[in-house]
Specification:
Strand content: 15-25%
Oligomer: single chain
CATH class of the largest domain: Alpha Beta
CATH superfamily of the largest domain: 2-enoyl-CoA Hydratase, Chain A, domain 1
Number of domains: 3
Shape: elongated
Structural class: alpha/beta
Length: 471
């Protein structure tokens, strides 16, 4: 049996707890009202911004960091969508994999738009397009050719190539899986067969969601769409939404420029020329430092471009011919041969069958740099010949030419063996006062009357007459 409470106690407890019911209901109603109000504020997507980004060039570690910063900005501003304008010939696999992972894990939907007309989403760029929650292309753009190659453009080892190709083909099929079997097959062919598609062909097989001429048409197309991410489902309201453009940092822009083959050739040429100047006239440091810096930057760019090693060897031969022209004085024949070899090697350096249009060197730029290199060699040769014509003076011959020259006293020069110092022809000299001359104060002009050992014998410029030299 249970224990029963007296009626008085039960009545007393009932009368004590009864007034709490209205207060609890009021608190629940207030909390529900606040919750509905907060939900109403979050559910207003037109007040949430659109974040824009632009990738124009090879996919590198710098691109990875830039897009990571874009996605972080979109998440921090509670953006409703992040749109990436894309125009790339491809890039490194490790950076592309990280970009894909972060795009798929982003709580903010990511839309990839291949633009402007004539742009491409080549190689690694094709995988980035597939990784977007929505993908669009401008007219006259292409996508594909995602076959893996080495970092310098060479073919991989057959076993390694087979493994890498199979992995990338599986990744492409997985990314295209929501788009259907036809899209998966086309995505796999981009990897296994280096297949490329126009915008119309990509739309036909379902690789992209549409072909749009500009950003305004893209925003109209996205307005009202519902996009599902790994975190939530978002309905876009893009027509009147505020817009944020995330621009690359200065260092990111500089590193992107270093993947331009024209700039890489210039840095390589100037860097080698400065190194040769440093080796031909040792003692300084600035030319060697600057040349080393240019070579390091050129090597960075070479790491992201398909390189023909025959072209690189021809460039080395051209530099050897330039050096021999200066050393042997072949009357310009070696300089001309070096210029021709340089231009031919430069044209071969990046113009490999694996190079995409954005990675090829323009012929007129190679010709211009070759002629400049030949001109610098001719100028160096002229300086060498002038130096050979100057009579060599050392020891007593050199110091004897100082007699009669005028300089400035750097310290007081008093009679006696101690003397002082004078500034003459850019150098400091130990000096003694000529016998019979008055003392000289610092800053006063002096004239050399004789040279005695390591000392200049000087007198004031304003004094005339003969002066004796101390023995």
């Amino acid at each position: 049996m249970g224990i029963k409470r007296p009626m008085s106690q039960r009545m007393h407890q009932w009368t004590f707890e009864r007034p709490r019911a209205p207060a609890l209901g009021l608190m629940l109603a207030l909390g529900l009202w606040l919750l509905v109000g907060c939900q109403g504020q979050v559910a207003a997507p037109e007040s949430r911004p659109i974040v824009w980004a632009e990738v124009d060039g090879p996919i590198t570690a710098t691109t990875r960091d830039y897009l990571t910063r874009v996605l972080n900005t979109a998440r921090r501003h509670h953006a409703q969508v992040a749109i990436v304008r894309l125009n790339t010939p491809g890039g490194t696999l490790d950076a592309t994999e990280i970009i894909i992972q972060r795009m798929r894990a982003s709580p903010v939907p990511v839309v990839v738009y291949v633009t402007p007309e004539g742009a491409m989403a080549g190689s690694a760029g094709a995988l980035i397009v597939l990784a977007g929650h929505r993908a669009y292309m401008a007219p006259a753009t292409v996508i594909g050719a995602a076959t893996p190659i080495g970092v310098s453009g060479q073919d991989l080892d057959p076993t390694l190539k087979a493994k890498t190709t199979n992995i990338l083909a599986a990744l492409a099929r997985a990314l295209a899986e929501p788009r259907g079997l036809q899209a998966q097959a086309a995505a796999a062919r981009m990897v296994t067969e280096a297949h490329a598609l126009t915008a119309a062909e990509a739309l036909e097989v379902g690789l992209i969601d549409g072909i749009l001429p500009d950003e305004a048409a893209l925003l109209r197309e996205l307005d009202g769409q519902t996009i599902a991410t790994q975190h939530a489902t978002v309905t876009l309201r893009t027509e009147r939404a505020p817009q944020i453009t995330v621009k690359p940092l200065l260092v990111e822009r500089v590193l992107a420029l270093l993947t331009n083959p024209n700039l890489v050739l210039l840095l390589l040429s100037v860097g080698v020329q400065l190194i040769l100047i440093e080796l031909s006239s040792p003692g300084g440091w600035f030319a060697g430092f600057l040349g080393s810096l240019f070579l390091i930057l050129a090597i960075y760019g070479l790491g992201f471009l398909p390189v023909n090693w025959t072209g690189l060897l021809l460039l080395g031969l051209a530099f050897v011919l330039f050096v021999l022209e200066v050393k042997k004085a072949a009357h310009g024949l070696m300089a001309l041969a070096g210029a021709g070899t340089f231009v031919f090697g430069a044209l071969l350096l990046f113009n490999t069958p694996l190079a995409l249009p954005g990675q090829r060197l323009t012929w007129w730029w190679a010709l211009a740099v070759g002629l400049v290199m030949a001109g610098l060699t001719g100028a160096a040769m002229r300086l060498v010949w002038r130096a050979r014509e100057v009579p060599v003076l050392t020891g007593a011959q050199a110091t004897a030419r100082l007699v009669g020259r005028t300089g400035w006293a750097r310290t007081d020069i008093q009679p006696g063996l101690r003397g002082g110092t004078v500034y003459l022809q850019g150098e400091l000299w130990s000096a003694r006062l000529a016998r019979g001359a008055r003392p000289i104060r610092a800053g006063e002009p002096v004239r050399v009357v004789a040279v005695q050992g390591m000392y200049l014998i000087v007198r004031p410029v304003d004094e005339r007459g003969k002066f004796e030299v101390r023995g």
